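Need tokens for this chain, all 243 residues.
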Amino acid sequence: MVGYMGQYMDFKMKKRAVETLKIIHECASEAGVRKALFVNFGLLLGIIRSGDFIPWDTDVDMCLKQDQITPKQEIRYFQLLEQRGVFKARKKWSTIKDENGFSESGIDSKNDDGKKVRLTWFSLRKAKEYPKFCHWMMIDWNGITWHSKAGQWISRHKFNKKHYNYKDTDEAILKGIPQKYLENLMEINFYGIKIQIPAMYGSCLDFLYPGWIIPSYRGSSASKIVCVAPKWADKKTWRVVIN
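Here are the structure tokens for all 243 residues:
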């Protein structure tokens, strides 16, 4: 939860964060995905603990329940964000693998057929002085709600290879949250914007950030439940690891 490039959420950055948050919800409404959009992870922690952004966390976490929106709505939302001037910093589509390894060859929002390509994660940032808005696509499977950066988490070795027993040829690693903690959402007012958070926010935070009531400068969400996906499109190959 440390800020991007050592940055802090000062007054100017907070103002820009609120502006971006407003744009995000306006685009979500226009694309028809607002009911599936909610705040989680670091921003949820800040809201519940102090009613505000975490000063040292400039990564703002948004989530979308992917099974509640269509691929076309998903792409439309992404396009609207670009049209509103929210810079697309990075994106990851459902893992596509070619002879060169992990690749996004030929995959973009313009040639999507609405069936084969889904986002797994993308981030928005207009400039260095703006906060980064991470969008996690949440996938329900086997009683767990999963999120992933697809192959990126493997290539950066975010997880201990010996403990999680994955191969470099595996297509993704996913982190999980018990589905019951995210099933119901509630609406709150945050800087004049109606946003959604998990109704069971206490249980959600207990799971993600044990001891969360006491602020910690460095940290990230816990990896208690992880899924190794050798083949992204074939859930029969997915393997759950409980830490």
